[in-house]
From TrEMBL:
It comes from the Bacteria. Keywords: Aminopeptidase, Hydrolase, Metal-binding, Metalloprotease, Protease, Zinc. It comes from Pseudomonas indica. Signal peptide: none annotated. Belongs to the peptidase M18 family. The keyword Ribosomal protein does not apply. GO terms for cellular component: cytoplasm. Its EC number is 3.4.11.-. This is Probable M18 family aminopeptidase 2.
Length: 429
């Protein structure tokens, strides 16, 4: 079971180089499991026991399994995660020709660790908007092959490299795509038009715009002398999206279950499809009873906000509170912050800990050092938007926000097991 889940995660990561592709991958898996797509621009007809999903901006998704037990009696079981990861996004007019090389200007998305982006085999993927036969259309593209690289400067020319230096995102990050001869021009939109033809058989009249990200082509893998780890890009937070999906598809019982995977968490969640936007509430209000009943349902519900946690690194153990150093392969982590950077309360933490104990899943706790700043998640944002009780949890990882992150190979099975139990739980506190 563990090996199957890990391979499934590796396949999901490969198919999901951008939030658009991650949402498409989730939607395809939901469709295969009998979930019906609902268009927000059309009337909806939902039935008890029905299974539905909604996407917005092609990059966020909400999946709902309506229980046969009225949600006004038992509430909802919600799991939240996010589809985006720190990366390098291509600028609107990106063409650079310097010293006979064709490069693309990029903008850093989110709080990326920049040094690991150097000397990697990069490809490009995302959404392209174009005019075709007089109409404006959009398609996802993925070059898949390594088409770019950001070479490091040789240490002979930067003797202080190993003493650390500030990376200039404007001048040092533009990837190299090709060499150009003489005054030969390079048109990025022509390249995208060719890719649309190659992938989709489309002949675009004009490429109008795009949202494209570079990504590392090296596949995720189970690594380590004893296969103890999973290394790969975008573990934060596609690992949680995948775990939530597996739990939803495996859930039994008559309860109403929701999986929400929002875009834009890494840049503050403030968008029409982000956790700080109206998407989740709007979807739920269209599927559930309104007015007084809706508020009662929310107050009987609970959200598990699943986002990766910081495992204690053996080389940097002093970056953790001595009593709160989560270990890889020791189970999911309950994240606590008294300043509400995490939305966990004693009640919600106690319930999640109870679920772990009942299902023989190891569980840990994380509190940031008191002299360090704390990150945040969609948990507090969704809690403030919906008024739903929330517990913030996640699997411990190393190298968070790097181009290649590391998690424990045993932990995914732990997380899927407890999230499945949560979805199937007949009683909430």
């Amino acid at each position: 079971m563990r090996e199957k889940l890990n391979q499934g995660l590796i396949d999901f990561l490969k198919a999901s180089p951008t939030p658009f592709h991650a949402t498409d991958s989730l939607a395809m898996r939901l469709e295969a499991a009998g979930y019906k797509h609902l268009d927000e621009r059309e009337p909806w007809v939902a039935e008890p026991g029905g299974r539905y999903y909604v996407t917005r901006n092609d990059s966020s998704i909400v999946a709902v399994k309506l229980g046969r037990r009225p949600p006004v009696e038992g509430g909802m079981r919600l799991i939240g995660a996010h589809t985006d990861s720190p990366c390098l996004r291509v600028k609107p007019q990106p063409e650079l020709q310097r010293q006979g090389f064709w490069q693309l200007g990029v903008e850093v998305y989110g709080g990326a660790l920049l040094a690991p982006w150097f000397d990697r085999d990069l490809s490009l993927a995302g959404r392209v908007t174009f005019r075709h036969a007089g109409k404006v259309e959009s398609q996802l593209i993925d070059f898949k092959n390594p088409i770019a690289i950001i070479p490091n400067l040789a240490i002979h020319l930067n003797r202080e490299a190993n003493q650390g230096w500030a990376i200039n995102a404007q001048t040092e990050l533009p990837p190299i795509l090709a060499q150009v001869v003489g005054d030969e021009g390079a048109d990025f939109r022509d390249l995208l038009a060719d890719q649309l033809t190659l992938e989709h058989g489309l002949s675009a009249d004009t490429v109008l715009d795009y949202e494209l990200s570079f990504y590392d082509t090296q596949s995720a893998a189970v690594i380590g002398l004893n296969g103890d780890f999973i290394a790969g890009a975008r573990l934060d937070n596609l690992l949680s999206c995948y775990a939530g999906l597996q739990a939803l598809l495996a859930a039994e019982g008559d309860e109403t279950c929701v999986l929400v995977c929002n875009d834009h968490e890494e840049v503050g969640s403030c968008s029409a499809c982000g956790a700080d936007g109206p998407m989740l509430e709007q979807v739920l209000r269209r599927l559930l009873p309104e007015c007084d009943a809706f508020t009662r349902i929310i107050q009987k519900s609970l959200l598990v906000s699943a986002d990766n946690a910081h495992g204690v690194h053996p080389n940097y153990a002093d970056k953790h509170d001595g009593n709160h150093g989560p270990k890889l392969n020791a189970g999911p982590v309950i994240k606590v912050n008294s300043n509400q950077r995490y939305a966990t309360s004693s009640e919600t933490a106690g319930f999640f800990r109870h679920l772990c104990l009942e299902n023989e899943v190891p569980v840990q706790s994380f509190v940031v050092r008191s002299d360090m700043a704390c990150g945040s998640t969609i948990g507090p944002i969704t809690a403030s938007q919906l008024g739903v009780r929330t517990v913030d949890i996640g699997l411990p990882t190393f190298a968070m926000h790097s181009i290649r992150e590391l998690a424990g190979s045993h932990d995914l099975a732990h997380l899927v097991k407890v999230l499945t139990a949560f979805y199937s739980c007949p009683d909430l506190p």
